[in-house]
Design brief:
The complex is a heterodimer of chains A (117) and B (114). Chain A has 117 residues and is an all-beta fold. Chain A has strands spanning 5-7, 10-13, 19-24, 31-38, 42-50, 53-56, 65-71, 74-79, 88-95, 107-108, 112-116. The chains are: A mainly beta (117), B mainly beta (114). Chain A binds chain B through residues 4, 31, 33, 35, 39-45, 48, 50, 55-56, 91, 93, 95, 97, 101, 103-111, and chain B through 2, 6, 32, 34, 36, 41-46, 49, 51, 89, 91, 93, 95, 99-107.
Chain lengths: 117, 114
């Protein structure tokens, strides 16, 4: 099992540039989550998808941020234009949500460290 | 507004002693609590969890305690080992409301001194 795959692992860009982060969830999982980690706020949920449909995007900080999940095996988080305050580690996680209930563990990718100069 | 708070950013413990990591929450709808462990350059990994119908859950060296009236939970590691050195995140979920998302704290960096 390859786990959750994220690319790139590191991204350095200049203010104003477009940044695209990519995620491949674990095969068979039906939920996908994007988080941002900062020292001040810890792990913040940005958006999550169930069956490729965005369910809650209230954590997306601004219109500069957008996320898509065109199919069950791929998602992108785009920042355009990027700003220095967007510098953080961005994590993608996936989970299998069962209709029968119970807790559904989230499995995290290794993260993308974004630096905006 | 942080709904899950970890007020100690760091903790140092001698090898073999007990490590106690604390977490407070504000949302009374939370009914499931988890601890995640994170090593540098890796994503968080699930460690242990507890449902609000329990007040204690134990898994080997790791025990989580839940005090619902105080909206407080803690993670005990006994005995602590150098390999336990990592950042520990507390997380909470309102499962019974149908939500699948987790609310995380800011993390506590544990250092176990050999």
């Amino acid at each position: 099992d390859a786990g959750v795959i994220q690319s790139p692992r590191h991204e350095v860009t200049e203010m104003g540039q477009e940044v695209t982060l990519r995620c491949k969830p674990i095969s068979g999982h039906n939920s996908l989550f994007w988080y941002r980690q900062t020292m001040m706020r810890g792990l913040e949920l940005l958006i999550y998808f169930n069956n490729n449909v965005p369910i809650d995007d209230s954590g997306m900080p601004e219109d500069r941020f957008s996320a898509k999940m065109p199919n069950a095996s791929f998602s992108t988080l785009k920042i355009q234009p990027s700003e220095p305050r967007d510098s953080a580690v961005y994590f993608c996680a996936s989970s299998l949500i069962r209709l029968s209930g119970g807790y559904n563990e989230q499995f995290f990718g290794p993260g993308t460290r974004l630096t905006v100069l | 507004d942080q709904q899950v708070k970890q007020n100690s950013p760091s903790l140092s413990v001698q090898e073999g002693r007990i490590s106690i990591l604390n977490c407070d929450y504000t949302n009374s709808m939370f009914d499931y609590f988890l601890w995640y462990k994170k090593y540098p350059a890796e994503g968080p990994t699930f460690l242990i969890s507890i449902s609000s119908i329990k007040d204690k859950n134990e898994d080997g060296r790791f025990t989580v305690f839940l005090n619902k009236s105080a909206k407080h939970l803690s993670l005990h590691i006994v005995p602590s080992q150098p390999g336990d050195s990592a950042v520990y995140f507390c997380a909470a979920s309102a499962r019974n409301s149908g939500a699948n998302n987790l609310f995380f704290g800011t993390g506590t960096r544990l250092t176990v001194i050999p």
